[in-house]
Amino acid sequence: MKFDELQQVLTLHKKWLLKQSDGARADLAMAELAGLNLEGANLRGADLTGANMSQCNLIRTNLNMANLYGADLSFAKLVHADLSKTDMRGVTLFQADLTSANLEGADLREGKLPGRTRFGELGGEANLGQCSLDYAVLKNANLSRADLGECSARGANLSGSTLSEAKLQSANFRGANLTNVDLSGANLAAANLSNCDFSDAVLADSVVEGTDLSNANLANADLSGVELGEATLSNATLPEVSDTPAQTLDSIIAEHESWIESGGARGARAILDRADLRNKDLSGANLSGASLIGARLTGATLIGIALELADLTRADLRDTKLSDAALAGVNLTEADLARADLTGAVLAAKEIIGADGKPTGKVAAANLTRAALIDVRLDGANLSAAVLTGADLKGADISGAVWGDSNLDVAMVDKSVSAG
């Protein structure tokens, strides 16, 4: 794209941001912008899907809530850039400089587009290899399965972020804030994680061969399945060993079902946030209203399960069997349901009942905002009024699904597949 053409796009975009009638949102999808100087530009909310922005000067550029799905930002300068709440699925940031950038709430999960870059196909796993994230803010960012090999993120704030199955080999995160971070299944081999705060973090089944955890705070971290003997732990604070057995899953479900049946008078609501439920068979269980934020349910059998109004934000539901599941009003924001079987499942809206057992007049829609629904089966599923903003339905079988008033038009769907 010629620079004067880009300037016209930016002028119209500025007017759009100011809600002027003659403005227009910047549509730079698949645009060739490599090497351009966009320092300090306001691209808030712009569409940059698949754009080539390699080697761009984006210092202090505002990309808040922009769509960078599958974009190439390799070698770009993003120092102090605002990338908060940006869709960065499948983005390439190889050797990019994001020092002191703001990526709070950014989505850096995998995502694919047709075409190729110097690193292979457009998109795929987010590639942050050898990039600089020193002192950057990545609070509540989703970096599931992202490649951060040899990345430098010294002093960065990643609190509340999801890095499950991420690749951090030889990365330098010295002094980073990793409180409440999900690093389950991550590869941390030879990484420098010294002086990091892992309070309430989940490192279950992570690889720590040659990892430097000296002076790290691991007191309240979940280290199940971690071979700590392979890491350097000098002066690290480790969890205390408890002789009290954990409450069993069966008892948690029983207490929850009693809580539902009694309207809260008996039992207790199930809190299974970040619980490891992989390959479990919970078919027919009633977990409506439960909290399963970030829960790992990969390969679980959940046929006929009731999860109405449950919170499964960022839950990992890949390869799950959810046929005939009751999911009305469920919150699946940024959940990963790749290859899940949702045949005949109900994801319609759910009427909310008050504590007195009477209808409140309020309705909760099933929320699948930015959910990964790649290659899922939805034949016969009911998604009436479902919120699908930014959901990825590429390769999904949506024939025979009922969409009603859902906003399927703002989801990413293969053009070759039609809704029934």
Task: Write up what this structure looks like.
It is a single chain. With 420 residues, the chain is largely without helices or strands. Helix content is 7%, strand content 5%. It has helices at residues 3-17, 249-261; strands spanning 111-117, 120-124, 350-353, 359-364. The protein has a two-stranded antiparallel sheet. Strands 3-4 form a two-stranded antiparallel sheet. β3 and β4 (359-364) form a beta hairpin. Mean pLDDT is 91; it is low at 116-120 and 415-420.
CATH topology of the domain at 246-420: Pectate Lyase C-like
Structural class: little secondary structure
Number of β-strand runs: 4
Quickly name the level 1 CATH class of the domain at 246-420. Mainly Beta
Please give the CATH architecture of the domain at 246-420. 3 Solenoid
Mean pLDDT metric: 91
First-last Cα distance: 39 Å
Helix share, percent: under 10%
Total helix count? 2
Strand order of the largest sheet: 1-2
Instruction: Detail the poorly predicted runs.
Output: 116-120, 415-420
Overall, the morphology is globular
Provide key terms for this protein.
two-stranded antiparallel ribbon; globular; little secondary structure; 4 strands; Pectate Lyase C-like; 420 residues; 2 helices
